[in-house]
Design brief:
The complex is a heterodimer of chains A (205) and B (147). Chain A is an alpha+beta fold and 205 residues long. Helix content of chain A is 68%, strand content 13%. In chain A, helix 2 packs across helix 5. With 147 residues, chain B is mainly alpha-helical.
């Protein structure tokens, strides 16, 4: 019953949380973009010059440029290839998480939301970095893969799949489940889990 | 690395999703045609291509991982995986059909649903399926005392 209430309330709250998230796109993306800039600048100084927020888009200035149709180091071309990345591709996890959390009506809900938001920003930063990797792979190709520390193309594709296609929906569920401990819904779920576990295969004694 | 799996499983499966979607739409709208992974309106020329991330495979993987990790009898797991996969894909077909028409109506709304709302609804679907699975498993041994 509690679970049913949770799902119905989540669906009802989603238009509200998604509306707020869409309206305040820059606000929710800013910390993740800053973190992504920090991570990329530190780990891949020969690939990314800087990343900054412009509206809801993350503008990434790369260390690659184009000269006579050839892509090479920006120092040799005098120009830089810039990427425009839609930060909402990963930040919608905040709207989903807010709907899940509000539907549970937990004690210290605001504090829990702030903790969850912090973790989501960290996860979002990796999501944004994964999009940068995928875009550079598609646009720059060889010179990007030859840069120090850049993983092989298949690994970039897998990381993108995990961080961009999976994590924005999976991370909010994991965080919500973690913060659910001690609530009436958690007790009901624990009861279901205990009962379900008892139907499992008997372990050797 | 994963190209053989893509070619042998994912791409034919994605094509099948497009064909099923077309078969479901055709009785109501004769202008729809499926070309591989592409769903096209013959009159307007509007088309949607079902790509990786749109075929519900990621959501199904999350569900299967949860079912496999949870202690249960093997036949219960097999039933749950089969039923759960069908349940997730059923909603995914609703997603594909809805996106096909939303795209013809308003591209901004299409983007909003395609990129943000439908992935969340599919993940909620996975949660619902897993919650139902837990309750169903519990009913297999209803007499057990819970501490």
């Amino acid at each position: 019953m509690l679970m049913k209430r949770q799902f119905v309330l989540t669906l009802i709250l989603m238009p509200i949380t998604f509306g707020i998230w869409y309206a305040a796109g820059t606000l929710f993306a800013a910390p993740a973009v800053w973190l992504c800039d920090l991570v990329l600048s530190l780990l891949y100084p020969s690939v990314v010059e800087a990343a900054a927020l412009q509206g809801a888009d993350m503008i990434v200035s790369s260390e690659f440029g184009q000269l006579n149709g050839q892509i090479m180091a920006a120092a040799d071309t005098g120009n830089r290839i810039a990427l425009e990345i839609n930060s909402r591709l990963v930040s919608y996890s905040i709207a989903f998480y807010a709907a899940l959390l509000m539907a549970s009506n937990l004690e210290e809900g605001v504090f829990k939301f702030c903790v969850g938001l912090f973790w989501l920003w960290v996860i979002m930063a990796f999501g944004l970095a994964s999009i940068v990797g995928k875009e550079l792979l598609m646009i720059v190709g060889g010179p990007f893969l030859a840069a120090p520390g850049v993983p092989p193309a298949d690994v970039i594709a897998l990381i993108y799949q995990f961080n961009v296609l999976l994590m924005p929906t999976l991370a909010p569920v994991c965080l919500w489940f973690w913060q659910l401990r001690g609530s009436p819904l958690w007790e009901a779920l624990a009861e279901d889990i205990k009962r379900a576990s008892s139907a499992g295969p008997s372990l050797p004694r | 690395m994963l190209k053989p799996v893509q070619e042998a499983v994912i791409q034919p499966f994605t094509g099948l999703l497009a064909s099923i979607s077309t078969a479901l739409i055709l009785p109501f709208d004769e202008t729809v045609i499926a070309q591989g992974r592409v769903l096209r309106d013959a009159t307007t020329g509007f088309a949607v291509s079902i790509e990786a991330g749109c075929n519900g495979v990621e959501a199904a993987i999350v569900l299967i991982a949860g079912i496999v990790a949870f202690p249960a009898r093997t036949h219960h797991k097999i039933i749950a995986i089969a039923a759960g996969f069908l349940f997730v894909q059923a909603l995914n077909i609703v997603r594909i059909i809805s996106l096909f028409y939303l795209g013809q109506w308003n591209y901004t709304v299409f983007e909003l649903f395609h990129l943000y709302l439908w992935p969340v609804l599919i993940m909620l679907d996975v949660l619902v399926v897993f919650a139902i699975y837990l309750q169903w498993l519990g009913k297999q041994h209803p007499a057990v005392e819970v501490a």
